Amino acid sequence: MTAPWTVAQKILAAHGVQDLTPGAFGLARVDLVMTNDVSGSVALREFEKIGARRVFDPSRVALFADHFAPAKDVRSAQLVGRLRRFAREQGIEQYWEAGSTPNGGIEHTVLAEEGLIAPGDFIPGGDSHSCTYGAFGAFGTGVGSTDIAAALALGELWVRVPQTIRVEYRGTAGPQVTGKDLILAYLAQSGVAGGTYAALEFAGPPIDATSIDERMALCNMAVEAGAKTGIVPADATTLAWLADKVTGRPLEPVLPDEGASYAGRAQIDLDGMRPLVARPPSPADVVPVDTVDRVRVDQVYVGNCANGTMTDLRQLCEVLGGRRVARGTRLIVVPASQRVYRQALKEGLLEQIVEAGGAISMPTCGACFGGHMGILDAGEVAVATTNRNFRGRMGHADSAVYLANAYVAGAAAVSGELVDPAEVMA
Amino acid sequence: MSDVITGRAVVLGDDVNTDNIIPGPYLNITDPEELGRHLLETYDAAVGAAVAPGDILVGGRNFGMGSSREQAQVAIMARGVQAIVAGSFARIFLRNCINVGLAVAESPEAVAAIADGDELRIDFTAGTITRGDDTWTIPPRPPFVGEILEAGGLVGWAQERLRRTSSTQGRR
User: Fold this and answer.
1) Contact A82/A76 with Cβ under 8 angstroms?
2) Which of B65, B96, B162 has its CB closest to that of A226?
């Protein structure tokens, strides 16, 4: 197989992978290795077993205390403590923990804000949503703890070269449709396994028009289709966003070659589309919000590595618009990082949320994965801007999570029901 | 990891996810035995409780979808599960199994025929799964995967690689 190549193939080639045939195995040099308190707890143990005394390059390792942080109990404090000590012992400066570092919060958001991701980078992360880095034209991919341990020791990751699926969007969606809905629309087509072992390459005029926040939501959920990564090839939007963040190295987009070979093409027509909702317990059981049963909602959660951005908080406040959270419904808002928190404070968004009756948490992954700060009881229903609604994901096995964008979440908060935000905002 | 495995089938459905295998609240547990006690808790707690040492988990399509949490493999191995047979595997889950040396075999045909409690024999050298007189073939392991498994998993493989690179480049 010879060029032309897809973005994923070009990035792997630039990192030392020789055979770019989909399905071929190779070793890729990594630009950065990311791990957190959950995957790191196992990774550091395996790192010791490998017998490596030092990480391959302390400037290319990023550690995040975000899943059980701020520590909810002694066990969690031990996980975080171990990560913190490792950072100190190894001279790793990219250690982030809200409350003790200038930024802090959810790993994928903070990495981007701190300028640690650039187009063309290859970044394995000890979290399945590391595919989020595709929002910046990078190849981010989620791996397990032993992979992280080996990458920390060697600076390389074994890879199986993915085939690429080109996901092309066209048309004009209706109001309150966001980047979240673009990926939900793909999941509706692909199912939870339609992208298995593939890199998704997102394209089309609606993608060109998205902001970086929306692209993060889009690429974040590529893994829910089973994909290895999801990439929006870098463009002017990417470069403008990164310009003041990435320093000390040039920003060079990696673009797909004309005539690159795709294993498949998905076409998604947005004309007249309403916001979408993923019904529990599958992120791919996706239906338009105006056709879904009007269920009562106990908790609304706006946050997580997909949708805890300024864009989401602004959208939420647009729906709140001086209204109050419905009686019997809780609204929990989690800015994805301290930087988002400070900006939201400055813009008066946090005040609006609190005045509406909502509660604001410090940045953490907590409730999204059922850890802490917003756990559901049996029979409870949540509308969340998160990325997974598996059985028991946010708490009791008999609770239910609907995934949706921040407009839908806001509408659920003020009406206490799962409704089309157009009804509330009319 | 042995090349021939025999054990009792515990049959699960399609799209078993990592939250089913080990729910999020337990991710701050570091003791493997304790993690293992919560195996399959939100899939079906009774099924999870019935998994016994030597068993073979049999999943449908897309086994292990979702999180990268390797605590899933830790919990499965702590319960003495010897192997997983599935119609297909989710990407990260499969990587993790290869890396930690947890035996996996892919065969949609076998999965369609196997019933709960069946006695199975998996022969990785011959590339077969057998149950009594029935035999199904499994795809051969790619050479690179064989290399990792021969080294005893990615930890062993990385040890060797680290030795080789440090002997050529000096101590890192």
Assistant:
1) no
2) B65
d(CA A108, CA A131): 9
First-to-last CA distance in chain B?
Answer: 31
Contact with chain A for residue B60, Cβ under 8 A: no
By the 8 A CB rule, do B88 and A196 touch? yes
Torsions phi, psi for A226 (to 5 deg): 90, 5
Q: According to the model, what pLDDT value does residue B165 have?
A: 81
Query: Among 3.20.19.10, 3.30.70.1060, 3.40.50.720, 2.60.40.10, what is the CATH number of B4-141?
Result: 3.20.19.10
Amino acid code (one letter) for A125: G
To the nearest whole angstrom, how far is the Cα of A393 from the nearest Cα of chain B?
7
- Superfamily (CATH H level) for A7-248+257-267: Aconitase, domain 3 (3.30.499.10)
Exposed, middle or buried: residue A16 (CB in 10 Å: 0-12, 13-18, 19+)? middle
* B87 Cβ contact partners less than 8 Å away, ≥ 6 residues apart: B14, B59, B60, B61, B62, B63, B106, B107, B108, B111, B112
DSSP state of A269: E
Mean pLDDT of A201-211: 98
Asked if residue A305 belongs to a known ligand binding site, the reply is: yes
Kindly state the helix (H) or strand (E) to which residue A425 belongs, with its residue range: helix A421-425
Q: How would you label A136-162 residue by residue, b for 16+ Cβ within 10 Å and e otherwise?
A: bbbbbbbbbbbbbbbbbbbbbbbbbbb
ipTM: 0.97
Helix (H, G, I), strand (E, B) or coil at A321: coil
Structure-block tokens of residue A54: 């030092």
Query: Would you give the DSSP letter of residue A54?
Result: S
Residue A57, class by beta-carbon neighbours within 10 Å (0-12 exposed, 13-18 middle, 19+ buried)?
middle
Q: A142 and B68 in contact by Cβ < 8 A?
A: yes
Residue B170 has pLDDT above 60, yes or no: no
**DSSP symbols for B79-123:** TT--EEEES-B-HHHHHHHHHHT-EEEE-HHHHHH--TT-EEEEE
Instruction: For residues A164 and A198, give the distance between their C-alpha atoms in angstroms, rounded to a whole number.
Output: 5
CB B96 within 8 A of CB B103: no
pLDDT above 90 covers what percent of chain B?
Answer: 93
DSSP E strands, chain B: 4-11, 56-59, 83-86, 103-106, 119-123, 128-131, 134-137
Choose, out of B16, B18, B61, B70, the residue to mutate when testing the contact with A (most A CBs < 10 Å).
B70
Beta bridge partners of A105: A337
The residues of chain A that CATH labels 3.30.499.10 are: 7-248+257-267, 284-423
Give B-chain residues touching A228 at CB under 8 angstroms.
Answer: 91
Q: Is B58 helix (H, G, I), strand (E, B) or coil?
A: strand
The reply to whether residue B62 touches residue A192, judged by beta carbons under 8 angstroms, is yes
Instruction: Choose the CATH number for A284-423 among 3.90.1150.10, 3.40.50.150, 3.30.499.10, 3.40.50.1580.
Output: 3.30.499.10
Evaluate if residue A140 carries a pLDDT over 80.
yes
Find the mean pLDDT for residues A213-228: 98
3-state secondary structure of B26: helix
Q: Give pLDDT, residue A1.
A: 60
